[in-house]
Amino acid sequence: MHSDSANTVGSAHIPALGLGTWDLRGRTCARVVEQALRLGYRHIDTAEIYGNEREVGEGLRGSGIDREQVFITTKVWQEHLAPREFERAAKESLAKLRLSDVDLLLIHWPNARVPLAETIGALCRMKSQGFARNIGVSNFTVPLVEQAAKLATEPLANNQIEWHPYLDQSKVIAASRRHGLAITAYSPIARGRAGDDNVLRLIGMHHRKTAAQVSLRFLIQEGAIVIPRTSKLERLEENMAIFDFTLDPGEIDEIRKLANPRGRIVDWPGSPNWD
User: Which of 101, 162, 206, 219 is the most buried (most CB within 10 A)?
Assistant: First the structure.
């Protein structure tokens, strides 16, 4: 990996490229995690709701890579944000992963039915008690980030959000950074859409890169941590090869213009009111 491939926020040193594991199951999940780590990935992202934490742990152990070299993120599901449930869910995640702590523990989605103060309190306790080295949030909007930062008794390190060329997230990114939170971009290739984009493809031709690599590189240059998901070995390698080229300011501007109001992919009844 390269020197520009880590984001340092407070004490958190988060590798800029991670493997997203949403939708990876069973043996496939364990195999992909193991392969990714052997290739040089040092950041794996999972979540309680993915139902694959056990396999992520297996992949980690199978890789032979030292635990201390790998940054592991997991997330507590929206239905488990009441303090006692939050604590139980976080500890169950650790048991499945077979780890004594995770590098980053996130609130996966906000839940308006549970007072944020209670959830943030439980999240901070997980850090102060040593179950999480760093803590943060996911899918938090500007007002939620502001509230969370005020309520937290431990530093928040990260806001994980949907971010790709088709979605302008500048408002929530600015709010997050104001409070010292790094940004992790999930669905950074827009669930494959970026791979077929003509603008990205043409830019890629200049650099001998694919459209998907251009999408990832764009986010890296915009200061994001990216966690593309794949189950294919060749794609794991392709997603890694984004640190040996640089997009020029004109190309960055061209890519920013792809954003549109209907660009969001992940939206469901449990979503907050987006910025």
Answer: 219
- Report domain extents, the chain: 13-192+225-230
Task: For residue 7, name the pLDDT band (cuts at 50, 70, 90).
Answer: confident
Calpha distance 6→48 (Å, rounded) = 25
Tell me the C-alpha distance between 85 and 124, whole Å.
14
In terms of pLDDT, which residue wins out, 8 or 128? 128
Fold of 13-192+225-230: TIM Barrel (3.20.20)
The reported pLDDT for the residue numbered 268 is 97
From the candidates 41, 50, 166, 186, give the one annotated as an active-site residue: 50
- Please say if 41 is a catalytic residue: no
Tell me how far the alpha carbon of residue 237 is from its chain's centroid. Answer: 19
Mean pLDDT of the chain: 96
